[in-house]
Amino acid sequence: MVAAAAPPRVPKTLFLDAGGVLVHPNWQRVSDTLTRHGVAVDAAALAAADLRAKWTLDTAENVRVTSDDERGARYFAAVRAAAAVPESAAADAAFAELRRYHAEHNLYEVVPDDVAPALERLRALGLRLVLVSNANGTVDAKMQRLGLARYFDLILDSQCEGVEKPDPEIFRRALARSGATATATIHVGDLYYVDILGARAAGIEAWLLDAGSLYADADCPRVATLTELCDRVQALVAAA
To answer: For the stretch 167-204, what's the b/e string if a residue is b when 16 or more beta carbons lie within 10 angstroms of its beta carbon?
Structure first.
């Protein structure tokens, strides 16, 4: 990654990632489950390990040789290690229970306070919103459950599609089904080698949500929050 980016396009459509952008792991549920199994780990310690754990796995080589499911397992293992969750049969049982919950309901179920207002602002700008998520087949139901589905014109879940980011095919499907054009679309995600490179391969400009300021050398626009995203998109639309 090198620091140099072309001027942003004026979007008519915004593609958004789900996990790490709109929804986050329910670390309190993880903590409570561990506690029930006799392993005391504070939710704050788990949450504190989140961003760096993702960042360490977001490499060209790791993305090339692993699936999203494999990277997810490595991510939770990295969080577990960083939060000093002990290696024990009790902890293993707790994480097995959490995997079952995730398979049925999706553990990415915490919606930060700025998400709904940001989506409202983006809709008010007249933008078409499309969710493009690497997930496990539960994203549509989860977004319905969390009250976020109503903001989106289209939701794509990689498990349902049989193709996942960074494969540009999932972005091409999103363009075709939403009626969007690549030149008037911006994708926003939190992983450089998954979201940014995948979208670019489909001819789509991509912005990185870098909440932890870990991608200072990224050759793409970066925003720290959804509020900043809205401000920058609004400025583009107003200037046009």
So the answer is: bbebbbbbbeebebebeebbbbbbbbbbbbbbbbbbeb
E runs forming strands in 17-127? 24-25, 108-110
Residue 183: partners with Cβ closer than 8 Å, 6 or more residues away: 9, 203
**Residue 6 confidence (pLDDT):** 62
Q: Six-digit token pair at 216?
A: 């200072």
Mean pLDDT of all residues in the chain? 95
Strands (E), the chain: 13-16, 24-25, 108-110, 128-133, 154-157, 185-189, 205-209, 222-223
Which residue in the block uniquely carries the two structure tokens 């602002």? Answer: 121
Q: In what order do the strands lie in the sheet with 222-223?
A: 154-157, 128-133, 13-16, 185-189, 205-209, 222-223
User: Which residue carries 């926003």 as its tokens?
Assistant: 188
**Local structure of residue 38 (DSSP, 8 states):** T
Cα gap 78→124, rounded to integer Å = 39
Of the listed ranges 9-13, 26-30, 59-63, 139-143, the least confidently predicted one is 9-13
Burial label for 33, CB within 10 Å (0-12, 13-18, 19+), is buried
Cβ proximity of 208 and 196 under 8 Å: yes
Q: What is the mean pLDDT of residues 211-230?
A: 97
Beta strands in 86-204 (DSSP E): 108-110, 128-133, 154-157, 185-189
**Beta-strand pair 24-25/154-157:** unpaired
